[in-house]
Amino acid sequence: RRPASTFAAPHRTEIHEWWPSSEDRFAPGDLVLGFSRAINDRFISEWGLRHIALVPSVSSAARVTVCTGHAAKGAQAEDVYLLPWSKPALRRLDEQEPSALRLLYTMLTRASRRVHVPTTLLARMQ
Fold first, then answer.
1. Which of 10, 45, 58, 117 gets the highest tally of CB atoms within 10 A of its CB?
2. Confidence class of residue 49 from pLDDT cuts 50, 70 and 90?
3. Are 66 and 15 in contact (CB under 8 A)?
């Protein structure tokens, strides 16, 4: 197990603990990343989010982008929020499956300032 700081981007991205709640407010340009589209769809539905982008873009009409970690490759945002991973995905991470580790690294390095990580992922990163 590696310390959380080793997962951070080279530009010293801050890692914050986060648990999604409907009281959270996203700023324009924020990036919300889930492990799968099913997780993202459930998040969008439960929160009733509108005016979102489903792929990283420069659209000014989109308040926030919600996409998978795979779709976020090459994207950058000041604040990135990771959605909780499913139990099978967490199991893959616990087993240190290379593809799961690479995906987590990709997701964490999309932030230029802060990445907000759910407790379940943060515990596995430490």
1. 117
2. confident
3. no
Mean pLDDT rounded to a whole number for the chain? 83
Q: For the chain, what is the radius of gyration of the CA atoms?
A: 14
Q: Is the pLDDT of residue 51 over 60?
A: yes
Sole residue written with tokens 């005016």: 51
Q: State the angle between helix axes of 87-94 and 98-108 in degrees (0 to 180), rounded to the nearest 10.
A: 110
SS3 65: strand
Question: What is the C-alpha separation between 118 and 85, in angstroms, rounded?
Answer: 9
Record the pTM: 0.83
Q: 88 φ, ψ to 5°?
A: -60, -35
CB atoms inside a 10 Å sphere around CB 19: 11
Beta partners for residue 117, in sequence order: 17
pLDDT given at position 125: 79
| CA–CA distance, 61 with 81 (Å, rounded to integer) | 20
- CA dihedral (65, 67, 72, 77) in degrees, to 10, reads 30
